[in-house]
Design brief:
Helix 1 packs across helix 2 and helix 6 packs across helix 7. It is elongated, with a radius of gyration of 19 Å. It has 227 residues and is mainly α. The chain has 8 helices and no strands.
Length: 227
């Protein structure tokens, strides 16, 4: 059922994205900015000054827009937002940083996602089989728990490279250039300690459980409904 699997995966992925995007915004800001005292402080300030909304289909554009703290509708005396939206953001990056600017953090993104996706699905399948008798389909509760913990497990392994990716993506905006991933890792660890590589892990985990629980539950439900 390749068509049904594709549609079910697309719908469940969209639901997970809608549910997780506000948490993702907070996570990116904690990883790349030092003006927040913690998760709650970041959430309160973000909600107070602006709304969290999904604007960008590409990871670089998403990160840049998420780090834009000026209100979308500038008030009298307030700073004007650097980017007016995803298209303007992409055009500005291309004009100011060249074509390579649009691929900042691409290697870190690839290295983050390649092993993480394997861990993600293996964890989900293992937890489902562990909790389901032979010959039976996993229950809704099993799917929810397995999906949630699969998400957390994958983010535990992904967060260090996620931090590096976000910092390299923001480097052009801050007029700072890293010579590569290794330089970014060394500079970050030297200035902020090894704990910097797990910045955002708490919010990642808080987001991962409900997002991936809903994603897998909707995927399994749609697949079985059509099967």
């Amino acid at each position: 059922m390749p068509v049904e699997e594709f549609v079910a995966g697309w719908i469940s992925g969209a639901l997970g994205l809608v549910l997780g995007h506000p948490f993702d915004t907070v996570k990116v800001r904690l990883q790349t900015q030092t003006v927040y005292r913690g998760i709650v402080d970041c959430i309160v300030k973000t909600y107070r000054h602006e709304s969290a909304y999904c604007l960008a289909p590409f990871d670089l554009i998403k990160v840049r827009l998420q780090n834009q703290t000026e209100p979308r509708r500038a008030q009298l005396g307030s700073p004007v937002p650097r980017y007016r939206g995803p298209v303007h953001c992409a055009a500005s990056i291309f004009q100011e940083e060249g074509p390579r600017g649009l691929f900042r953090g691409a290697w870190a993104l690839m290295l983050r996602d390649t092993p993480t996706l394997g861990i993600y699905f293996v964890t989900y399948e293992w937890l489902c089989r562990l909790s389901t008798p032979d010959g039976q389909n996993p229950s809704s509760a099993t799917v929810l728990v397995a999906g949630g913990f699969a998400g957390i497990t994958s983010w535990v392994t992904a967060t260090p490279l996620d931090v590096i990716k976000a910092r390299m993506q923001m480097a052009g905006l801050k007029q700072r250039e890293y010579r590569g991933m290794l330089d970014c890792m060394v500079s970050s660890a030297r200035q902020e300690g090894l704990g910097v590589f797990f910045r955002g892990l708490t919010i990642n985990s808080a987001r991962a459980f409900p997002v991936n629980a809903v994603t897998f539950l909707s995927y399994e439900y749609l697949l079985h409904s059509w099967g």
